[in-house]
Amino acid sequence: WLMRRRAKYSWRTSLTTSPDPVKDERLPQRVDGALEPLPEPSESDDELWRIYDRGRRVQDALTAIMDEHPDWADDSDFSHRFGVQNLLTTLEWVRKRLRGTASKKSEAPRFCFLFPHHRHGIERFALRQRGTAVTVDLCAKCRSEINDGHDPECLMVPQRPGAKRSKPVPYFQRSDVYAVAGFGSFQPLEDA
């Protein structure tokens, strides 16, 4: 029993290194194309112009990450990788909506608060921590783990980015844009 528990929670003591969206989804190549100009809406539909504006904010956020963290694809802090991945996913949705290839009813992508690459069955969930409850977006897998009484795996990052030796902590315990936005749970990542 003890060995299974140690194995189950071993993620708590090390930085997240998997999955790696840089390799799995070829993020650096996708970033280049993502910064190309967005197609402007051909109609005077307010909703399409709001989506267009969101796309511009996403592109600005991508540019900010590239400028502030030029080594984002090689950094041991995976929060940048997942930030880029989530912004690219949002931008793909924006482009589909602007081109008319996505349904008007299609919702913007949502990401799991605990591990932002989880995307299946995202729903709002009251996450209880240290005597308080925070409503966040959680995937079906993480909700199931919590409901079963377990701590689901979460994105672990260096407590002090850039330090040679830094303790791994859940990303939301830092005060960077990813924690402020909760990868979209509290506000869109591009607005943080």
Describe this structure in words.
This protein is an alpha+beta fold and 192 residues long. Helix content is 40%, strand content 10%. The protein is built from 7 helices and 4 strands, in the order αααααββαββα. It has helices at residues 2-8, 21-24, 27-34, 46-68, 79-99, 140-147, 177-181; strands spanning 123-129, 132-138, 156-158, 168-170. A two-stranded antiparallel ribbon has the order 1-2. A two-stranded antiparallel sheet has the order 3-4. It is globular, with a radius of gyration of 18 Å. The termini are far apart. The model has no long low-confidence stretch (mean pLDDT 89).
Summarize the structure.
The chain has helices at residues 2-8, 21-24, 27-34, 46-68, 79-99, 140-147, 177-181, and strands spanning 123-129, 132-138, 156-158, 168-170. It is of the alpha+beta class and 192 residues long.
Topology:
Layout: H1 2-8, H2 21-24, H3 27-34, H4 46-68, H5 79-99, E1 123-129, E2 132-138, H6 140-147, E3 156-158, E4 168-170, H7 177-181
Antiparallel strand pairs: 1-2, 3-4
Helix pairs in contact: 3-5, 4-5
Could you name the key traits of this structure?
two-stranded antiparallel sheet, 4 strands, globular, single chain, two-stranded antiparallel ribbon, 10% strand, 7 helices, 40% helix, alpha+beta, 192 residues
Strand content: 5-15%
Query: Low-confidence parts, pLDDT < 50 over ≥5 residues?
Result: none
Structural class: alpha+beta
What's the overall geometry?
Answer: globular
Taking the alpha carbons of the first and last residues, their distance comes to 42 Å
